[in-house]
Amino acid sequence: MKLCDSKYISLLSSRLRNFKKKGNHTYNFSCPLCGDSKKNKHRARGYLFEVKGSFIYKCHNCGEGKTLATLMKIVDRNLYNEYVIDCMREQGSYREPLLLEKQTPSGTKYSTDVFKDLKKISDLPLEHVARTFVTKRKIPNKFHSLLYYSPDYQEFVNNIIPKKLSGQHSPRLVIPFYSFNKEVSGFHGRALDDNPAKYIATVIDYDIPRAFGLPEINFNKKYYVMEGPIDSMFLDNSIAIGNSDLPGGLTKLQCNLENAVLIWDNEPRNLEIVNKIHVGITRGYSVVIWPSDLSHKDLNDMILGGYTSSEVNHLIDQNTKQGLEAEFAFNLWKKI
User: Fold this and answer.
1) On the CB side of 85, how many CA atoms lie within 13 Å of its CA?
2) Mapping DSSP to helix (H, G, I), strand (E, B) and coil, where does residue 224 land?
3) What per-residue string of b and e applies to 170-186 under the rule 16 or more CB within 10 Å gives b?
4) Average pLDDT by consecutive 10-residue portion of the chain (336 residues)?
5) Beta-strand relationship, 148-150 and 119-120
6) pTM tops 0.70
7) DSSP 3-state of 3
8) Structural domains present in the chain
9) Reduced to 3 states, what is the DSSP secondary structure of residue 124?
10) Which of the two ends of the chain, N or C, has the fewest CB atoms closer than 10 A to its terminal CB?
11) Which has the closest alpha carbon to 37: 26, 28, 45, 49?
């Protein structure tokens, strides 16, 4: 066993629920990837053990297997970066580590100043293409001052992260992603026309929590977790992960998982979505299984199709399932 492994397992232990040492080279704790158990906070089915001089992580609940380094990277990226350097020092081969993820230099890009050269949707003329887009999508007025318009998305992004984009000189709606403390972690650029690149996701800080709606969310009561930020604007106490990996994105937030209701788009023929929903069910989450006769793809489509926000909320609550009930409804819903 490497000395740095022992040192960093000890440092990581404070971030792992129910951590305990089971033997000389075996550690047990609640899985930080799946949460282990929503009903019993004392369940601990994650094991870190040594195999041929290296530590391997295995969860007997979700089945995930990781190296110590990968587990550390997921739980605490800064600790992971220190671990890489210390291991190289121990081996006598320290140099600028290739495994370290490049960090965005600190500066004004972490605050709302990053949007200082853009106009808020609420400040645009009513006939402006971006404001017209937002109005036609029926996005609630309270969000108009939180969204921005970029006439040249590539120029906007490359001013923050040089040479990040190419071939994307199109106007876009900019949807900011903030941390709990209102730090900017990234943003989505939503096309205003039929551009095949409908969304362009840009991350400017990998080290802070990333989801749309974090500053306002209350994890101590029922909350909703969705893929797209526009959909989340139609439900109170909701967040959007920005992709279809809702369980993975939620775990990284290190928040209360018991009150979460996971809502994927209504795409029963999309293999990726079907697989992600099954993962959510397997990990014990409450998930929404849409009625088989529902033709709308997502919440925004439902609103545009004539549903009110309260009707959407009622439909979601009616179709929230967990455990065997979710598995049964899921098997009826999926088309692959």
Assistant:
1) 9
2) strand
3) bbbbbbbbbbeeebbbb
4) 81 89 91 83 92 90 89 82 76 42 40 84 97 97 96 93 88 94 91 88 84 93 96 96 90 87 95 91 94 95 95 96 95 93
5) antiparallel
6) no
7) helix
8) 3-91 (3.90.580.10), 117-210 (3.90.980.10), 211-336 (3.40.1360.10)
9) coil
10) C
11) 45
Question: Which position has the token pair 């971006």?
Answer: 130
Q: Could you tell me the two tokens for 266?
A: 């209504």
Encoded tokens for 49:
């053990």
Classify burial at 132, counting beta carbons within 10 Å of its beta carbon; exposed 0-12, middle 13-18, buried 19 or more.
middle
Cα separation, 73 vs 66, whole angstroms = 10
The 3-state DSSP class for residue 40 equals coil
Q: What is the pLDDT of residue 98?
A: 33
* Beta strand pairing call for 223-226 and 260-263: parallel
What b/e string do you get for 69-105 counting C-beta neighbours within 10 Å, with b at 16 or more?
bebbbbbbbeebbbbbbbbbeeeeeeeeeeeeeeebe
> Helix, strand or coil for residue 29?
strand
Per-position b or e across 216-225, b if 16+ CB within 10 A of its CB: ebebeebbbb
Angle, CA 107 vertex, CA 103 and CA 110 arms, to 5°:
75
45: which residues sit within 8 A by CB, 6+ positions away? 30, 31, 36, 37, 59, 60, 61
Look-up of token digits 């990726």: 272
C-alpha distance from residue 304 to each of 21, 189, 230 (Å): 55, 21, 12
224 close to 232: Cβ distance less than 8 angstroms? yes
